[in-house]
Amino acid sequence: MHPAPSVIFFTVFSGMGFGLLAFLGLGFPAVTGLLAFAMYTIGFGFAVGGLLASTFHLGNPKNALKAFSQWRTSWLSREAVLSVAALLMMAVFAIGAIFAGVHFTIVGIVGAALCIATVFSTSMIYAQLKTVPRWNHVTTPLLFLLLSVTGGALLAGQVSFALPMLIATGAVQALTWYLGDSRFAQRGSTIETATGLGMIGKTRQFEPPHTGGNYLLNEMVYVIGRKHSMRLRVIAITLMSPVPFALLLLPHNHIWAALAVLSHIIGVVASRWLFFAEAEHVVGLYYDKR
Amino acid sequence: MTELPTSTDRKLGLVIDLDTCVGCHACVVSCKGWNTENYGAPLSDQDAYGAAPQGTFLNRVHTYEVQPPEGAAQTVHFPKSCLHCDDAPCVTVCPTGASYKRSEDGIVLVNENDCIGCGLCAWACPYGARELDQAAGVMKKCTLCVDRIYNENLPEEDRVPACVRTCPAGARHFGDFADPESNVSQLSRERGGMDLMPELGTNPVNKYLPPRPKQTEEIDILAPFLTPVAEEPKGFLKWLDKALGGD
């Protein structure tokens, strides 16, 4: 699948932003006043910035408001509804914390739950697609949720919580790759099932339907960079998990903490790039490509 | 509404005969012609006369080579457009309600006034039946020529999808699969109409008729009359043959 930068930034940053907002909503840390203002700015900045970035890949964004209407069937619509609900709920909580120095506990808990639900619905947009076997698995929401919580813990300065989460995230990331690599073959879709010609024999493309590219090939049969995937995987998982883990073990210092966050973000961006670039859509079978 | 209807009154769709299709791409051209001039945004092209032309098409013809366990390989031309699935995954993922399946005839359509161009429906479709138009930014797909089949301004024989009307080989058939006696139901029954990628559970309405098995090792009855006649040349030709070194 085509790794659109807007979607990579949206999923990485909104995930971390909602993770941070969830921690703040639960009172970890229970900040007030100016410090609260700074932390909520980061939380809302990441979450809203990510959501805005996601509109850049729309072909026709003027209809964006209509995306709130189909929550009964569409995970994308659910994500839109939940994200706005989460942001509004957390805005109420943030105003109380910043300007009145009070924490509306119930609002914070509900807001945190909505933040996590938003990240879950984001992950389900991908996990629901049977056409992309690599994504169509429980590890997709699991990894998205773990990354959100880990990123949130890092941004919220919850070091003792972040340490085990970093390890868990790295482990689930490795598991996701390991299981994902064989899933396309396991699901059994081949050029023979795609064309129905398997009943006659072995099938191959003789002539493509068009000599140039098209939307389908650009969007769903993106093969550029896959040959570097092994190296990128090592970079991604190292920066995402062990490097920030080691930095957090050093004597506490804001520079190490900031570097840990930075390293984690770069690792997650690389991982999210691979999430798209390595995902193979079954439509590629019609072109004898993966 | 992106909830799928539990059932549709009619199931309009196509039967595509892979035995008959000659791969002329006339259906591709007529589809583009009709649908760029009629319902919805035109089907745009980018860099049409440049080095890397691309464009939006609702129907494309692939060509495959199939190698049976025994005998010669076969070439199969394979037109592919929206299959108007009963369990259309493209419809339920749509966040705006722009994609829908009609309960009256089962046609899957996009309301372009509601489409945000997110592309998720194209991701959800296993068949590559949806293409996001790069000029209009909205999703385009086969409408089963909904603006022809009910159009009383057209002569009756033209009230079929453009691809069906134009096919010179008669490889495309349009009809109602809900009626067991319709042309398409009968064809599908008799010729073993098949679903594409049935493992994905989309329940396509359109059916593909597999190529008929090719006869092998059976020589035409006229073949003996075509055996080469190679008699020894005489006279001048014999001399010429010798002079040219033929032996």
From TrEMBL, chain A:
Its EC number is 1.8.5.3. This is Dimethyl sulfoxide reductase anchor subunit. One of its GO terms (cellular component) is plasma membrane. One of its GO terms (molecular function) is dimethyl sulfoxide reductase activity. It comes from Halocynthiibacter halioticoli. InterPro entries: DmsC. One of its GO terms (biological process) is anaerobic electron transport chain. It is an enzyme of class 1 (oxidoreductase). Pfam families: DmsC. Keywords: Membrane, Oxidoreductase, Transmembrane, Transmembrane helix. It comes from the Bacteria. The chain crosses the membrane at residues 7-28, 34-59, 80-100, 106-126, 138-155, 161-180, 230-249, 255-275.
TrEMBL record, chain B:
It comes from the Bacteria. Residues 12-42, 73-104, 106-135 form the 4Fe-4S ferredoxin-type domain. The keyword Iron applies. Pfam families: Fer4_11, Fer4_4. Keywords: 4Fe-4S, Iron, Iron-sulfur, Metal-binding. One of its GO terms (molecular function) is 4 iron, 4 sulfur cluster binding. This is 4Fe-4S dicluster domain-containing protein. The lineage of its organism: Bacteria, Pseudomonadati, Pseudomonadota, Alphaproteobacteria, Rhodobacterales.
